[in-house]
Automatic annotation (TrEMBL):
Protein family (similarity comment): Belongs to the aspartate/glutamate racemases family.
Function description: Provides the (R)-glutamate required for cell wall biosynthesis.
Residues that bind substrate: 16-17, 48-49, 80-81, 199-200
Name of the featured protein: Glutamate racemase
Pathways involved: Cell wall biogenesis; peptidoglycan biosynthesis
Gene (name only): murI
Organism expressing this protein natively: Bacteroides pyogenes
């Protein structure tokens, strides 16, 4: 165990490669406004979706270490790519050494748990990063809980760059939004429910809605992750006691502060102040 880690109660850490985790943070803060939060976006190294398993694991572990050093006892990987590629290794191999009492949770399981009661056709689609699709995490997890559901996925490698570069509402975005939706529906025309399996994608929702045929339900993860965190804290009073409750939220990024605060303020609909930090370990 790392003796240097702060032992006093601290904020809940929320991590993503960039802006996407803000869609999760928003819903978590709506459901659990009394807690303190630290948001960390590794925007300087985003996107993670096209990176190797080893690199996503290394970057995610660096972020988790940083959030623990900043006083968090509980960290949410508000990133599907990190949840798919790094969560299991961090939980099994790293946490026992770092501090067996700290916890790291992901976003895939809470999303999968909700899906059984949403789809009627039992055909669902997943739109996600190349890394998440290649990991097969969604079909594998869905298979465990709902073996009757058929899952098809399509990687959308251009969507995260559209968000990170503030192009999500521009005309150029339309081509790529339509392209991946069409690819998915060609794979399985019986799909009645589509999971946005990347936390950046709800930031593209107006255009996704425009190109998704009307009867298809679009599942954004935020509210399911928030609900699942609420239940987790109820089930684990010992962790709840280690989370401070003053209703505050601090924002950190690995890129230029001005760019993050400008974009994040738009996504969150309120001005925020942000600090730039380095999380890279040599
Ligand atoms: N927002 C992340 C996810 O949910 C990753 C995006 C990326 O960096 O590619 O997968």
């Amino acid at each position: 165990m790392k003796n240097s880690l702060p032992q006093a109660p601290g904020p809940i850490g929320v991590f993503d490669s960039g802006y996407g985790g803000l869609t999760i943070l928003n819903k978590i803060r709506e459901a659990l406004p009394q807690y303190d939060y630290i948001y960390l976006g590794d925007n300087a190294r985003s996107p993670y979706g096209s990176r190797s398993f080893e690199i996503v694991y290394k970057f995610t572990l660096e972020a988790v270490d940083k959030l623990f050093e900043m006083g968090c006892h509980l960290v949410i990987l508000a990133c599907n790519t990190a949840s798919a590629k790094a969560l299991r290794s961090i939980q099994t191999n790293d946490l026992p050494d770092i501090d067996p009492n700290r916890r790291v949770l992901g976003v895939i399981r809470p999303t999968v748990e909700c899906i059984g009661s949403i789809t009627e056709s039992r055909h669902i689609g997943v739109l996600a990063t190349a890394g998440t699709i290649k990991s097969e995490s969604y079909p594998l997890e869905i298979q465990k809980l709902f073996p009757d559901i058929r899952v098809n996925g399509v990687a959308c490698p251009m969507w995260v760059p559209l968000v990170e570069n503030n192009e999500s509402q521009e005309e150029g975005a339309d081509y790529f939004i339509q392209k991946y939706i069409n690819q998915l529906l060609q794979k399985d025309p019986e799909i009645d429910t589509v999971i946005l399996g990347c936390t950046h994608y709800p930031l593209l929702l107006p255009k996704i809605r425009q190109y998704m045929p009307q009867p298809i339900r679009i599942v954004s993860q935020g509210e399911y992750v928030a609900e699942s965190l609420k239940e987790y804290l109820n089930r684990h009073p010992e962790m709840d006691a280690r989370c401070t409750k003053k209703g505050g939220c601090l924002f950190y990024t690995t890129e230029a502060e001005e760019k993050f605060s400008e974009s994040a303020s738009i996504f969150l609909n309120q001005p925020i102040s942000v600090k730039r930090i380095s999380i890279e370990k040599t």
